[in-house]
Write a structure and sequence with these properties.
single chain, alpha/beta, 11-stranded mixed sheet, two-stranded parallel sheet, 9 helices, globular
Length: 341
């Protein structure tokens, strides 16, 4: 299976220690490694065991999406997803250019697992299961960070299908600007032994920092462009969760398999970009819950369209997002990957 697994990163960095580490791990384990560039990416980017796609190379692809996706945007990572899903990948691993992989990052992945499952409805601060620190994932509504959670040992064990799996990150994990402004130099080490899944009706944001996707769920990889940078993967996570529920899929969270040496950020700029989430993430998920979502993987793309139509209607994304969603779906459909129904 490993030779049909792809690791995808978007980066404007020169080849750094993280990218070299990922490339070596991919080479040693028989995985493909794709880096999607942008305007500021170095023209001479090269790492062994890595396929780099410059803007020019992206434009030469037999895809319509690259010509419409805004430049200087994290959502250009979608191009890497399209390249690999249409090249026959069975698993896509989503990560970033500042996440060093632990050895466990390269372990074989299992989609169907017997794990503790959270069946409580509503918002869950998943980090409370992995540390005693007061910390919460980026995108979790601030008024829910102290919600009580059922003790880990009291959770029911169930066999669940998890084609989307979120791994945590040690050291400088994915948290919002509020946490970082209050705790400017706090380092976190999460419990590496635990894993648990969310059932239908339990909400928790997940990110693109360390996430594994199986082929059935690939259409849900779509990252929106017409929203703030700090919201794109959070919006994706809520859309994916809502559609997953109707396919009897659970979202798995497990201990860290990477540690982050974070790229430089302006925390006030991050805070500004996260304001839509602080204000509207609860509303967004309430509206998503109301939607009529069709059962069956063959309806993933039409369900994706339904979700983004609603998000544009309530101004979570700009109306221009709909054309990009349609183009994403069209590229998938034209290549015979999925039939839109």
């Amino acid at each position: 299976m490993k030779n049909r697994t792809s690791v995808i990163v978007t980066s404007i960095s020169k080849p750094n220690k993280v990218l070299h580490s990922i490339a070596k791990g991919c080479g040693d384990n028989g995985l493909r490694f794709v880096v999607v560039g942008d305007i500021s990416s170095p023209e001479d980017f090269h790492i062994d065991n890595c396929s780099f796609y410059s803007l020019e190379k992206q434009e030469d692809l037999d895809l319509k999406y690259p010509g419409l996706c805004p430049v200087r945007h994290y959502a250009r990572k979608n191009i890497g997803y399209l390249i690999e899903m249409l090249s026959g990948a069975e698993i896509i691993i989503d990560t970033d250019d500042d996440n060093f992989p632990y050895d466990s990052f390269w372990n074989d992945k299992n989609r169907v697992l017997k794990v503790p499952i959270i069946e409580t409805q509503g918002w869950v601060n998943i980090y409370r299961y992995f540390t005693d620190e007061l910390i919460w994932p980026r995108g979790l509504p601030l008024n829910t960070i102290n919600n009580p959670v059922e003790p880990y040992d009291a959770l029911s064990l169930k066999t669940v299908d998890c084609p989307i799996q979120q791994g945590l990150a040690d050291s400088n994990p994915d948290v919002d600007a509020v946490f970082r402004l209050i705790n400017p130099s706090k380092s976190i080490a999460f419990d590496k032994t635990k894993r648990l899944a969310l059932s239908k009706g339990a909400w928790c944001p997940f990110n693109s920092q360390n996430t594994v996707w199986w082929r059935d769920a690939f259409p849900l990889l779509y990252l929106p462009s017409y929203c703030s940078f700090r919201m794109t993967d959070i919006i994706r996570s809520f859309v994916a969760q809502r559609i997953a529920w109707e396919n009897e899929w659970s979202i798995l969270f497990h201990g860290p398999t990477v540690w982050q040496e974070r790229n430089e950020h302006d925390l006030i700029k991050d805070f500004q970009d996260e304001i839509p989430g602080y204000l509207f993430n609860e509303k967004m998920c309430i509206e998503l819950e109301k939607l009529m979502i069709k059962k069956g993987p063959e309806h993933l793309t039409s369900n994706l369209r339904t979700c983004y139509e609603k998000l544009a209607e309530i101004n979570i994304v700009d109306r221009k997002e709909i054309e990009l969603v349609e183009t994403w779906i069209g590229d998938i459909e034209r290549a015979g990957y999925y039939t839109v129904k």
